[in-house]
Design goal:
Layout: E1 3-7, H1 12-27, E2 32-39, H2 46-49, H3 52-76, E3 81-87, H4 90-100, E4 105-112, H5 115-120, H6 124-131, E5 136-143, H7 146-167
Parallel strand pairs: 1-2, 1-4, 2-3, 4-5
Amino acid sequence: MKRILLPIDASANSLKAVQHVIGRFVTDPAIELHLLHVCTPFNRHVGRFVSRRNLADFHRDEATKSMKAARELLDARSIPYASHVEIGDKAETITAAARRIRASQIVIGTSRKNSLTRMIEDSVTNKVLEQAQVPVEVITGDAVPGIERVGVPASIGAMIAALVLALD
């Protein structure tokens, strides 16, 4: 039996990964599917002003909203799955969950970005690829908006120009 870990967030790219796994389930119904939503922890100072119960309620509500569309797609096709919600660094939590559930594969959705953007930004997908001890299948979704394609390289150029001016 193939056990697949499928990290889920509220993005359309995440849903493309769900649709990909649904297509695989049709040909191999022995797949055991685990959905995982990773909540970003709050700053430790927030805990001073908000109760643990309220923080837990907030994380649970956010996870429910983020996983709703994925669950609806799977439920509509009667595909069984287990849901997991964890709090922590996204990449570290995903790879730790894969080890814990003994996943044979991680399937993750991501947007299409150029190599320069991926190299500079703090990409969860890149970190998972580096840290995972099982194969990671990356399902590319929609291309990033034009402003992001232009904005990141432009900001890099501005940073280089500022460094050159500072060195002079």
